[in-house]
Design brief:
- This protein has 15 helices and eleven strands.
- The chain is an alpha/beta fold and 457 residues long.
- The chain has three domains: 60 residues; 59 residues, no CATH class; 224 residues, P-loop containing nucleotide triphosphate hydrolases (Rossmann fold), CATH 3.40.50.300.
- The strands form two sheets. It has an eight-stranded mixed beta sheet with strand order 6-5-7-4-8-9-10-11, sandwiched between helices.
- Helix 4 runs antiparallel to helix 5, helix 5 packs across helix 6 and helix 7 runs parallel beside helix 8.
- The longest helix has 32 residues.
- The N and C termini lie far apart (104 Å).
């Protein structure tokens, strides 16, 4: 064994010196920091790293590595020097493979499996094509999902109907009816005609009009000809048009029917809401009461027992106002029969309408009043909500004019809207049909600014 002591400033320099003199097989036995100087014990000397290295063969057998500043060794000399090493490495690899294969055959259930041969990495072009193929597959799956969500005419139930009835089916779907409702109506159409008969579109439309009218229920006016007293409360979300509908009803019954009308408002939270109502009631000549609680409402009703019609305006409550909604629900039990109208905007999604109706279920609404019919061209929500809840329709708000833009709900009118039969929608004066033109003009012209702003609670 050849042992030698090396001094260097860093371990990197020491290792390079060891490999240069003893070769790559040298082993470091120890290392320590020393000071090398002229004084005893190396005082004030520069610190050096002392490394002891050894090799298990004679130094003369090793071909020293030339320092970097020396000229490079020729290629034939390097091949001659490394040939024994390559031969020994190849022989070792063959022996290792033979041992592994023998042990694998003798012990197939050994815990350590033989090392698999290295697999060459796929070329870059194959990786790109594989990624493109996967992307195409994802786009194909996405297109199938979209097609299933929005089926075409060939995949809808209308494909099983005759051509005129299939067109009627698509018309009902375009109006916002559920596919199950449209399918049920079209199947009823099919039962009215034989497959051999050639039916025109006009006959299909007439029969469909009659089928649409049948399930629609309406409540009629607030005061029937034989009625002299009624209390009606209007509930609904904020901005649905409750106050505007109340003002229109008060104007009609006061000016046209010559009934005594009293308004009671619980909506004292909105700025200037009571002032707007007071200006309307002053022009109409009707009474106005402001209430803070449901107990105040009951007191106001008792004080005005002599009035023919009492209309109660309520604020719009959200999902966090369950306690206030419960108080409104108790109002009917505390006083007596109160006609509750659920006021909803017709240009709202069906899911939101059902959610709002469920929130106001504690108020026990008995009628549906839709507003903003002039702001939409789809009226399937009116039909579906009335059909699903079995609640009758009372009135429809068709604009901001007071009192003209309010209609009494009629099944034939809704069927006309669903089938787009009306050439000009909402041109009828509605409740003011029998009211003189001068009365309407004087009312609308008295407060043009308020009519434009709209009391839209």
């Amino acid at each position: 064994m050849n042992i030698k002591l090396f001094h260097a400033e860093t371990m990197h320099d020491a290792i390079r010196a060891i490999k240069a003199e003893l070769g790559p097989d040298a082993v470091i036995l120890s290392s320590k920091r020393v000071r090398q100087g002229s004084l005893p014990f190396g005082l004030f000397g520069r610190p050096l790293l002392e490394v002891t290295a050894a090799v298990d063969r004679e130094a003369k057998e090793f071909v020293p590595i030339p320092p970097p500043n020396k000229p490079a060794i020729r290629r034939d000399e390097v091949q001659a020097a490394t040939a024994p090493i390559q031969e020994s490495s190849a022989a070792f690899q063959d022996t290792l493979n033979a041992v592994l294969s023998t042990s694998g055959a003798a012990r197939p259930r050994a815990s350590h499996a033989a090392m698999p041969a290295p697999v060459a990495a796929p070329p870059l072009r194959s990786l790109a094509s594989e990624h493109l193929h996967r992307l195409k597959k994802e786009l194909h799956d996405l297109r199938q999902r979209l097609n299933s969500s929005f089926p075409n005419d060939a995949s809808t139930p209308s494909a099983g109907f005759p051509a005129p009835i299939a067109r009627a089916y698509r018309q009902l779907i375009a109006q916002g009816l559920r596919s199950s409702s449209a399918d049920s109506l079209c199947r009823a159409l099919c039962r009215q005609f034989t497959p051999e008969s050639v039916v025109a579109d006009s006959e299909i439309q007439d029969m469909l009009h009659r089928l649409l009218v049948e399930p629609i229920r309406v409540s009629g006016p607030l005061l029937n000809p034989g009625d002299d007293y009624n209390v009606a409360m209007f509930v609904g979300p904020s901005g649905a048009g409750k106050t505007t509908a109340i003002v229109k009803l008060a104007a009609y019954y006061s000016l046209e029917e010559h009934k005594s009308v009293v308004l009671i408002t619980l909506d004292s939270c909105r700025m200037a809401a009571v002032e707007h109502l007071r200006m309307y009631t002053n022009v109409l000549g009707v009474g106005l009461e402001t209430a803070q609680t449901t107990a105040d409402v009951i007191d106001c009703i008792r004080r005005h027992r002599g009035a023919n019609l009492i209309l109660i305006d309520t604020p719009g409550y959200g999902a966090d106002d369950a306690a206030r909604l419960a108080d409104l629900g108790e109002l009917k039990d505390s006083y007596g029969p109160i006609e509750t109208h659920m006021v909803l905007p017709s240009n709202t999604r069906m899911e939101d309408l059902l959610r709002t109706l469920a929130r106001y279920d504690v108020c026990a609404p008995s009628r549906l009043l839709f507003t903003r019919l002039d702001e939409t061209q789809e009226y399937g929500n009116l039909f579906e909500l009335a059909y699903q809840t079995t609640l009758p329709l009372s009135y429809w708000g068709t604009g901001q004019r007071v009192p003209a833009d309010l209609e009494l709900a009629q099944p034939e009118r809704l069927a006309d809207l669903l089938l787009d039969r009306a050439s000009s929608r909402f041109t009828s004066p509605g409740l003011s049909l029998s009211m003189g033109r001068n009365s309407v003009v004087s009312l609308a012209g008295t407060m043009p600014q308020l009519a434009k702003e709209g009391v839209s609670a």
